[in-house]
Amino acid sequence: MTGGKRALLLALPGSEDLADAIAGRLDLSAGRLEWRRFPDGESYVRLHEDPGGRDVLLVARLDHPDDKLATLLFAADLARELGARRIGLVCPYLPYMRQDMRFNPGEAITSRPFARWLSAEFEWLVTVDPHLHRYASLDEIYSLASNVVEAAPALADWIASEVDDPVLIGPDGESEQWVSAVAALRGLPWRVFTKKRHGDRDVSLQLPDLDGLGGHTPVLVDDIISSGTTMAEAARYLTGAGFRSPLAVGVHGLFGEHARETLKSAGLARIVCTNTVDVPEAAIDLTPLLAEAVNGFLTSDL
After folding, report:
1. C-alpha closest to that of 254 among 142, 96, 119
2. Cα–Cα distance for residue pair 223/174, rounded to 1 Å
3. Where does the Ribose-phosphate pyrophosphokinase N-terminal domain start and stop, copy by copy (predicted)?
4. pTM
5. Looking at 5, 195, 196, 264, which residue is catalytic?
6. β-bridge partners, 86
7. Does residue 16 surpass a pLDDT of 70?
8. Is residue 255 packed enough to be buried (19+ CB in 10 Å), middle (13-18) or exposed (0-12)?
9. Closest of 162, 208, 202 to residue 186, by C-alpha
10. What pLDDT score does 173 carry?
């Protein structure tokens, strides 16, 4: 760290394990952020360490963000009020990125105000593979400094060590950027389904050319596992084409209502994601990559 006292790391509720792991790798002190709700539902927030003159890192898994955003903003504002030198956010899953245009008249493009709120409270952000579709980079809507950690190396390592003769399959066109990146790291074959969406849970797929790949184990790869509908449909196409039971590997395991049931009913052999979200399927640890990105900010003057 350049100047000032040693950085203070604080975890939002539900992110304590990740904060402790990052603190251990960087030899940082993990402070206590006390949070509870008053009987009327409002938040109570208290810092038990003095942040004065220190860099403060807030670690927050922001799946289900509406339940967590007020606490996050209150904690950042409190640290600044008590004299923090700089405030950074370690947010492995960055929400509100998929609403990046007005699909229907009158809709809110929620990615933009969310970016303004975070940019107003934090000097820098570390996140993992945000869902960039119509934005070229976070800089289009975020005014803070950001470091985007790529999960592809960790996914590639896991697949190479755990799956025999894998062929990587993207369940739709948007997944191609992740599938191709993971495949390139290990020289693996890959294909992508094309998808037509008729509704949130109604999709149809077109099978890619899979000639010559019949002896491989299909691994469905995507950035977000949410409803599971598209992955489940792709799995059924693959087993129907005579392939082994496929695996599903995702970066962010959000698992909406009935998603697990949807995926299991499709015959997937295993469902795996990273620890950007705290779920039982989080078998791929991104802590080393997150700690490296955090250290880059702590040792710079921005």
Report:
1. 96
2. 9
3. 9-119
4. 0.92
5. 195
6. 55
7. yes
8. buried
9. 162
10. 85
Which residue segments constitute the domains of the chain, with CATH numbers given? 7-149 (3.40.50.2020), 152-284 (3.40.50.2020)
Q: Is 5 a catalytic residue?
A: no
Tokens 């693959």 correspond to 238
For the segment 163-200, what is each residue's pLDDT rounded down to a tens digit?
A: 999 999 999 888 898 899 999 999 999 999 987 666 66
**One-letter amino acid of 181:** A
Residue with tokens 């934090």: 122
Please tell me whether residue 242 adopts helix, strand or coil conformation: coil
Q: What does the pLDDT read at residue 200?
A: 60
- How does pLDDT run across 257-294, given as a tens digit for each residue? 999 999 999 999 999 999 999 999 999 999 999 999 99
Q: How far is CA 54 from its chain centroid?
A: 27
